Structure formats: structure tokens, C-alpha cells
Backbone:
């Protein structure tokens, strides 16, 4: 079996695992774009987040370098899961910075807490969020990042309003999403987003798409800022 075939077999095996791990919810539809929401991956599928192939497929360190995260800044990892991105963010902001690691599933936060303790990471605060509210303090963060997360929101409009309120002046909100425009990327369509879909949905909640970066192998990096208030 070639390396490519082996990798595809691994991907499809994981998707079978994930199919059993998603929440038993009827997917809704976004009222602005008509996009059908993807079901949320349950904590039982956390192994997908830690798969060996993820560094090659997603290049997370490249994504974070694109964002030029400053030492001492406050950042929020929304939908942090088991902490694959959180750990990297904690290193980027340094001891004087802070990471809010948010998730709606307490089991994910339990896994993340064990990871932090094992690696002696002390600049991360765990936040149990709701499906419509990340529970972040107002004007508390310089950067919010969602890696393969936004497309699973069942209440995206409410979430975006709260995320907007949690940003400091000049803050950024970043979506990293698999490219729906590319059918060759081996991810189910409901777990991908196009730039047009993201722009339509997010800008409707008071944001502006400031930059689209295509440095990653399979994902868009979509950088949003808060739209200035009308005079």
C-alpha cells in the first residue's frame, strides 16, 4: 500500500470513529447563508485532534506564525478540545501572556487540564462555555482563534456577538477552516467552509473580513476585525 493510500485509509477510519462520536442533534441551517451546521464532534473522538498526520495536514505552527502573536498578549482558543492548539498558544504568548481555553464539553476540558498539568503549563485558564456564549470577559482578549470549530456552531449568530464583545479594541478573530472550494480535500463537505460563506455569516454580526491567508495546505486562515461603529 502506498503512503498516500495508507493515509487515506487512516482518514476514513477516523471519520467512521467521528461519525459515532458526534452529538445526536438535528443539524440546523444558518438563516443568512443557508449553510447546514455540522454536528459537534463528541469528546469520544478526541483522538482525531491528536492524530500524527495533523501537523502535516494542517501545519498549525505555520498558521500561528501568520498571526504574529505577541508575547504578553491575551488570546482565546475557542473550541479548544484536548489542547492541541492551546499548548502552542501558551508558548507563543509566554509567561506574561494568557490563554483562555474554551470548550462546551467538560470532558474535553478535563483532558486539557491533564495535558497542562503534565507539561507544567501555567498560563492557561479553562473556560466552560455554552453553545451560544463562550463565557469570556468583556474586552479581555487580543485574539480569538477557532481551528476547525466555527462550522460546528449551532448558534453562530449569538456566539459571534459574544465573541465580538470579548475582543479588546483592535483585537482580531480568526477562523481556520478547510477549503470548501477544493473538492479534493478529504473532509466531509459540512466540515468545510468557503471564504464567501464565512464572510457572509460573520460580517452580518459586526465584523469585517480583513485578510484571507492561504499559506496552509488545506485550510483558509480568515482574519476578522470588529466593524467600526456607524457615526
Residues:
Amino acid at each position: 500500500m502506498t503512503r498516500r493510500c495508507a493515509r487515506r485509509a487512516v482518514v476514513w477510519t477516523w471519520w467512521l470513529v467521528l461519525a459515532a462520536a458526534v452529538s445526536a442533534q438535528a443539524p440546523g441551517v444558518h438563516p443568512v447563508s443557508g449553510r447546514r451546521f455540522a454536528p459537534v464532534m463528541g469528546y469520544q473522538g478526541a483522538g482525531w485532534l491528536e492524530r500524527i498526520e495533523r501537523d502535516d495536514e494542517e501545519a498549525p505552527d505555520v498558521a500561528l506564525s501568520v498571526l504574529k502573536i505577541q508575547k504578553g498578549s491575551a488570546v482565546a482558543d475557542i473550541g479548544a478540545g484536548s489542547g492541541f492548539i492551546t499548548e502552542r498558544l501558551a508558548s507563543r504568548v509566554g509567561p506574561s501572556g494568557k490563554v483562555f481555553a474554551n470548550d462546551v464539553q467538560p470532558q474535553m476540558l478535563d483532558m486539557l487540564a491533564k495535558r497542562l498539568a503534565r507539561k507544567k503549563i501555567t498560563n492557561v485558564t479553562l473556560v466552560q462555555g455554552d453553545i451560544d456564549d463562550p463565557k469570556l470577559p468583556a474586552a479581555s482578549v487580543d485574539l480569538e482563534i477557532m481551528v476547525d470549530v466555527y462550522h460546528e456552531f449551532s448558534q453562530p449568530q449569538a456566539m459571534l456577538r459574544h465573541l465580538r464583545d470579548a475582543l479588546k479594541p483592535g483585537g482580531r478573530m480568526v477562523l481556520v477552516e478547510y477549503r470548501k472550494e477544493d473538492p479534493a480535500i478529504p473532509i466531509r463537505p459540512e466540515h468545510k467552509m468557503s471564504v464567501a460563506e464565512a464572510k457572509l455569516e460573520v460580517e452580518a454580526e459586526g465584523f469585517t473580513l480583513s485578510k484571507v491567508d492561504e499559506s496552509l495546505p488545506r485550510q483558509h486562515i480568515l482574519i476578522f476585525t470588529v466593524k467600526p461603529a456607524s457615526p
